[in-house]
Amino acid sequence: MESASCSAAAVGNGDMGSQRELSLVPERLQKREQERQLEVEKRKQKRQNQEVEEEKSDFFAAAFSRERAAVEELLEGEESVERLEEAASRLQGLQKLLNDSVLFLAPYDLRQGQEALTHLQAALAERRQELQPKKRFTFKTRRKDAALTTKVDTTPVPPTAAEGILSPSLPLKEEEALGFSWACGFSNLEFQVLEKRADEVHQRDILLTELSNCTIKLYGNPNTLRLTKARSCKVLCGPVSTSVFLEDCSDCILAVACQQLRIHTTKNTRIFLQVTSRAIVEDCSGIQFAPYTWTYPGIEKDFQGSGLDRSKNNWTNVDDFNWLARDVASPNWSVLPEEERKIQWD
Asked: Which H or E run includes 208?
């Protein structure tokens, strides 16, 4: 009897287990169906996002091409101040269009757009230079100007120059060679403290080149800033209306606010940045970013004049043209740790 009872109990338990397993089948099927639907929805959303990006890219290409052709026509036609001002205005619109499109543009398209803008800006600078009135030719004036230039260029700057003393401006030939026919800045100096006031840099193109172990302070609102061949320098700059470009620099510290930042062949440099689009690095290593913290009396007014949105800062959004893997961080740049952001600006 006991044996029969045990067998019956075992059969009963087996039936209950089978029923339990059967009851789980619909639940498993339901879960699998939910996972399948979720995967289908993800693929659908990805396809829609891709279509939207393609539509945006097509719109950008058409708009950029149209505005670029209009600027080229203005620059190639009859020269006049009005035409050049219209070309400059359209160029600013092109720069804004490119800045607003960096989130969905492929790196190649972004590079092509920036190169086209650089070419047009150089052409505009050349036309402006051609429109400037020619100086009268007189031996007396030339001798006087030559003597003055010689005096300025050969006057030595003391190694302990006080802050606020301006070094000689860039040679005209060097400015023109780089496409900055109306640039101002500093060149070929070392172990100096240099600065320019707001009235000296307002909406001008700043060129800093061949500097070593210098501290440069640029108060006010420049149009562009170009820093090349700098070694162990500290550059502090007020809000720049358009672009900042670094090339062939090393072991520098830069504080800048701008629409767009482009860094090329630069290494071991810390950048305190406010940028409304995205920063671009190419052929670089050891670049570190932190938010812009430099300040001085009147900086709020300079921000207003620059047209930059003070509340918008994409300092962590960086495109590395040498690192195309989107799912792996670039080894060429990083975020500067907070404990290393305490910089003595003065």
From this structure: strand 205-212
Q: Phi then psi for 16, rounded to 5 degrees?
A: -65, -40
> Which distant-in-sequence residues (6+ apart) come within 8 Å of 3 by Cβ?
none
- CB 223: neighbour CB atoms within 10 A? 20
Joined together, the tokens standing for residue 78 give 């009859």
Q: Average pLDDT for residues 29-52, to the nearest whole number?
A: 73
**Whole-angstrom distance between the N-terminal and C-terminal Cα of the chain?**
100
pTM of the model: 0.56
130: its two tokens: 């051609």
DSSP designation for 281: E
Contact assessment for residue 209 and residue 225, using Cβ atoms and an 8 Å cutoff: no
What distance in Å separates the CA atoms of residue 302 and residue 283, rounded to the nearest whole number?
32
| The residue count for the chain | 346
- Residue 188 has φ and ψ, to the nearest 5°, of 55, 55
3-state SS, one letter per residue, for 40-87: HHHHHHHHHHHHHHHHHHHHHHHHHHHHHHHHHHHHHCCCCHHHHHHH
- Structure-token match 């689009």, residue found: 277
Which residue's structure tokens are 């190694």? Answer: 159
Q: How far is CA 193 from the centre of its chain?
A: 26
Is 200:222 a contact under the CB 8 Å cutoff?
no
Question: For the segment 126-145, what is each residue's pLDDT rounded down to a tens digit?
Answer: 887 777 665 554 444 444 44
